[in-house]
Structures are given as structure tokens and as C-alpha cells.
Write a structure and sequence with these properties.
Blueprint (H helix, E strand, L loop, with lengths): L8 H13 L4 E3 L12 E12 L5 E11 L2 H19 L7 E8 L4 E3 L7 E13 L1
Parallel strand pairs: 1-2
Antiparallel strand pairs: 2-3, 3-6, 4-6, 5-6
């Protein structure tokens, strides 16, 4: 059995969300100077928070931000991501992890961003998983 917290949840969610969003959307962990040319972009980042049960179950807090050309588009994509995570990730498995409870707290909302050429919407997700 793999160690607790051994799932690279950022990598796993990036690949899972990329398959859901399709090739017209960029899904990654870090944004760069080319962001304006790669909209919409979904950014996945595990926060330095959460915990585990000391045996197998990992509770990760993950920020998922969407960058888009307009406020409406950013909120629309953030809502899609929320639906995928809450309704489809819960109870599913990938080659790396089995996923359990998923919740958003807070749910998607506009988040400030310095570049006025785009808009950012995001949410924080609490995701329970264990390695397979």
C-alpha cells in the first residue's frame, strides 16, 4: 500500500479536468506570461492545508481558478468545473486515486486579478482521496 497522501492530486486533477474540458481549454498548475493567449485556462493548486487519517485517507484543500476573457465566461467555466467535481469526481477512480467526498467552500465566485484583460473566478474544494 502506498503512503498516506501519496496521490499527486494536482497532477491527477489536471489530467482529469483536461479530459472533461477538452482541447480548447488549458488546464495546469501554474500560469505564465502567455495567459492572455491561452484563455480559458483552469488552474489547479493544492493548498498547504488539509490532513489525513494516519492510515490511508487524504483530505486535500484545492483551489481551482478559471481565467477567461469575460466575467460571465469565467463564472460559467467555474460552474462547469464545480459540477464535474461535485457530481462526477465523487465516487470515481483514476489510475492513481479513488475519490470520496468532494465539497466546495466557498463555491465559485469572482476573484481579483491584476490584469484587466481577463477575469478570474474560483473556488476552494475539499477532496477526500486515497491511492489505488
Amino acid at each position: 500500500m502506498a503512503a498516506v497522501g501519496s496521490v499527486d492530486i494536482e497532477l491527477d486533477l489536471i489530467q482529469w479536468l483536461q479530459a472533461k474540458a477538452g482541447p480548447a481549454v488549458v488546464v495546469r498548475d501554474e500560469v505564465d506570461n502567455n495567459l492572455l493567449n491561452e484563455l480559458p485556462t483552469i488552474q489547479v493548486q493544492r493548498l498547504p492545508a488539509g490532513d489525513d487519517d494516519g492510515f490511508r485517507l487524504d483530505r486535500a484543500l484545492v483551489d481551482v481558478d478559471v481565467y477567461a476573457a469575460t466575467r460571465g465566461e469565467a463564472l460559467e467555466w467555474a460552474g462547469r468545473v464545480r459540477g464535474w467535481l461535485l457530481l462526477e469526481l465523487r465516487g470515481s477512480a483514476t489510475s492513481r486515486a479513488q475519490y470520496g467526498r468532494v465539497r466546495s467552500s466557498p463555491p465559485p465566485a469572482i476573484r481579483p486579478y491584476e490584469n484587466t484583460g481577463l477575469r478570474r473566478a474560483g473556488a476552494t474544494y475539499e477532496i477526500y482521496s486515497h491511492s489505488v
